[in-house]
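Cross-posted from the bioinformatics board.
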Amino acid sequence: MNAQDCLTMLREMKDVAFATVDEKGNPQVRIIDVMLVEKEKLYFCTGRGKEFYNQLRRKPEVAITGLNKEFQMVRLSGKAKKLPEQKCWIDRIFEENPVMNGVYPGESRYILEPFCIDSGNLEFFDLGKSPIYRENFVFGKEKGAAAGEEGENGKETAKESESGNDEKKGFWITEACIGCGKCMRVCPQQCITKGTPYLIRQENCLHCGLCFESCPAQAIVRRGE
Amino acid sequence: MNAQDCLTMLREMKDVAFATVDEKGNPQVRIIDVMLVEKEKLYFCTGRGKEFYNQLRRKPEVAITGLNKEFQMVRLSGKAKKLPEQKCWIDRIFEENPVMNGVYPGESRYILEPFCIDSGNLEFFDLGKSPIYRENFVFGKEKGAAAGEEGENGKETAKESESGNDEKKGFWITEACIGCGKCMRVCPQQCITKGTPYLIRQENCLHCGLCFESCPAQAIVRRGE
């Protein structure tokens, strides 16, 4: 599993949710087709008359998510860049997605503008497995900045992220652990391993917070908020 | 079709995208289960340790979308309210959604908090039809405020919205129309009818903006931005 695999999954889901922030600072979300994925880049398009287009022009930050039939979720966050050479990209998109001709026949396709997300953060979350499985990736030019030298292949498991990346989320057990085992007993996914200190297997963690609330020594900390 | 039908569709899709705005003002989105829908209210839950929970507590505005196999999309925007009587609601949710016991067995379910959306705006968008079909609804207490006296049943077609509701989006042809017919010829969904002035059938409009850009008399205006 790597960043390209996650992007390919989004392309296979095809109809995924794209969230933006509107001019009032509120969330907006709609289903948009992932039109192309190649070389760790994701392409989509939208009409110049749409609110989605105006929201992207005002604030390019976008969050994407989709779920497949195996209950595997992919989440992406990044910035959407409008592409130059509009006609060239729109023609390419229509070639790869012929169903678009039914919605925008003939020359009407050129009301669409192509966008690309070439860097950002990805999360893979497998709800079809027990325990659940999660993994984070960075892709594109964010890779160097976010993952540092360990970012090869854009792969970076949740566990590796202990080395201190701002983008990393979840809970960690500190040296203040008294070894009582309460966290291990309450964890709904049984993803805590005995040790000194006890250890949360980050790749199986729901981030539900039950260990954090249950620890009698306040030895569990939250990261990334 | 009415607001309750849209909410029921979201419940049937079950796994839908919930978008929020994070502490940096950026969009975040993830797949969440719609746990219950009744009496024009939508219920879901999330763990107190999750970023989603913290985002909702900071800023309750949420946008939801899902797509079914018939390519019918529903979009909702509203505010998520945390419910009192947590255990009572969580028990009810687990009763209606027994699969949750596999993820949060035993007492661990009470790390979850129940939320309700009891008012807001809904959009139904049918991409499985040609031309596409769209309709807007308000539900809950927003109904009175947003739709005024015409808001009975929470039903309010895009066409009715010409009476001037801030929440209404799209394009309208004004009296400045010179009757040249260019908008009608370029429309990808052929949703413009000849007349004085020409008329956009709002329920079939993609909001792509091609008529707006093509009108030689600048007779077409955008609403709701």
